[in-house]
Design brief:
There is one protein chain. The protein has a five-stranded mixed sheet, sandwiched between helices. It is an alpha/beta fold. The chain contains ten helices and five strands. The protein is 42% helix and 15% strand. Strand 2 (129-138) and strand 3 form a beta hairpin.
Length: 242
């Protein structure tokens, strides 16, 4: 899709096609068929048992015939960007540049569009690899306002989608995310602050604080992704758009 010899800059081509710049410059590393199968199964188990950590997933996988250890499961979960949903003890302080904002939606009556937007990232398996999906959702209407695919868990493809949503629909009053490093970064929070948007973040491991996005991921995966094994990123793009 991207033509590096074209007179139009690569950055502008990415914007027009709706893909992240990291997708263009990323150099893929090979993953074995066995590794991809394990990632797909862990993804499905995470949707079924969102509270399960590496130890519990290891036990489930071993009962299904996978020969895998806890550390390997934990490594795969980190690569996929998923964590068990629980509230761990605070054993360390975060970097000042990654300050956590309070959760602003508890008890709030959200009944009109552009009051609250929510966003998140999820792992999308393909036949021979995987990509990450970021989406911006209007909390009241449940409408997906903008989304992007990327090969890497960087911040730039999230920023591109947020800018597109703001351009098309204006600014919300509140923007809610989890505490992922992409959302606590100065680039992401700076964009929201520059637009006068209040920042809200889920409690650590509290998936219910962003339940509508989590429900969107479940619908997308069970009704589309797991039904169609995408061969290419462009096929994933078309399938997810559908």
């Amino acid at each position: 899709m991207i033509d590096r010899t074209h007179a139009l800059p690569v950055v502008r081509q990415c914007q027009l096609l709706g893909v992240a710049r990291s997708t263009v410059y990323y150099q893929p590393t090979s993953i074995s068929e066995r590794g991809l199968a394990l990632m797909r199964r862990i993804d499905a188990l995470h949707l079924q048992y969102p509270f399960a950590g590496a130890r519990m997933l290891r036990d489930v996988l071993r009962r299904e015939g996978y020969s895998v250890g806890r550390r390997h499961v934990a490594t795969v979960m980190r690569r996929m960007g998923i964590t068990a949903l629980y509230r761990p003890p605070r054993t360390s302080q975060r970097h000042p540049a990654h300050r956590i904002s309070p959760y602003l939606l508890r008890g709030l009556n959200i009944a009109r569009p552009n009051h609250v937007w929510a966003a998140d990232i999820t792992y999308i398996p393909m036949r021979r690899g995987f990509v990450y999906l970021f989406a911006v959702l209007d909390w009241a209407s449940r409408r997906v306002l903008a989304w992007r695919l990327s090969n890497t868990l960087t911040t730039d493809f999230c920023l591109d989608a947020v800018r597109e949503a703001i351009t098309q629909y204006g600014c919300p009053e509140i923007f809610n995310t989890d505490q992922g490093c992409q959302f606590t970064s100065q680039e992401f929070t700076g964009l929201l602050k520059d637009q006068g948007i209040q920042i809200s973040m889920d409690g650590k491991g509290c998936w219910r604080d962003n339940v509508f996005v989590e429900r969107l991921w479940k619908s997308i995966k069970y009704e589309e992704v797991y039904v169609h094994a995408y061969d290419t990123v462009s096929a994933a793009q078309q399938g997810l758009a559908r």
